[in-house]
């Protein structure tokens, strides 16, 4: 795992590309600030299928971006081995149960897994982090978010709102190496497109109400459970509705190709 020293000298960052990335993320940060009303909202730069040197460019920029999100466990693991340990990685894509333990064990600076939608996945992440803790001191627990399917779409991952409490309670009570950080959702695209500054997205409302109920049942403050909602197309609306973190990819990095194994490897290597 890299400590960041070699990266600054061996990984080439194209100055023109870096400038474009900085301009793009500056615009996103300004938009976040304009609608956050003083609240602290975390920006996760979604870097899937984008080269490691793009990530390094933003990490070394004046903004010092530290939170990056990946959709594929293999790509996250490989990029983490190349890039500075000061990066905080977010696993935001659907994660197979059999990949949970290796990911949690192999990436010390995996900061959050945002796609936990079953007790089995939580248990596998717990086993991985416990195994890593036996090898080295970990400064903090691995944060996880319970993924909630607020839209009811079959193709979307996540537990139904009515099952959120049981999952959250299990993570909190039975996974000592994990921290229940909050709840997240990916809303229906149609609802995101229909949302305006004057209207609320039904999926975001549903997540907020689910979070409030879970917090009440667990006997904790609502503020102790973050809301993760909002992407490139709807992050401003999500912030207005209380989101604590947003995921923005194409607005920062540009369009990406469809995922293929060869493209993942090329992206990691900085060939695309």
Description of the structure:
With 272 residues, the protein is an alpha/beta fold. The protein has a single domain (7-269), classed as Alanine racemase (TIM Barrel, Alpha-Beta Barrel), CATH 3.20.20. Helices cover 46% and strands 15% of the residues. It has helices spanning 7-10, 15-36, 52-59, 73-82, 97-106, 119-135, 164-174, 189-194, 202-218, 235-240, 250-253, 261-269; strands spanning 42-46, 67-70, 88-91, 110-116, 142-147, 178-184, 226-228, 245-248. Strands 7-6-5-4-3-2-1-8 form an eight-stranded parallel sheet. Helix 7 crosses helix 9 (202-218). It is globular, with a radius of gyration of 18 Å. It starts with 6 loop residues before the first helix and ends with a helix. Mean pLDDT is 90; it is low at 1-9.
Features:
alpha/beta; TIM Barrel; 12 helices; 8 strands; PyrdxlP_homeostasis
Question: What is the averaged pLDDT score?
Answer: 90
CATH class: Alpha Beta
Based on the structure given, which CATH architecture is correct? Answer: Alpha-Beta Barrel
Determine Rg (CA atoms, Å): 18 Å
Q: What is the CA-CA span between the terminal residues?
A: 23 Å
Count up the domains: 1
Structural class: alpha/beta
Sheet with the most strands: spatial strand order:
7-6-5-4-3-2-1-8
Shape: globular
The beta-strand count equals 8
What percentage of the residues does DSSP assign to strands (E)? 5-15%
- Indicate the low-confidence ranges by residue numbers: 1-9
Say what the CATH topology is: TIM Barrel
Q: With helices defined by DSSP (H or I, 4 residues minimum), what is the helix count?
A: 12
The helix/strand order is: HHEHEHEHEHEHEHHEHEHH
For the largest beta-sheet, the strand count, sense and barrel status come to:
8 strands, parallel
Estimate the helix proportion, in percent.
Answer: 40-55%
| CATH homologous superfamily caption | Alanine racemase
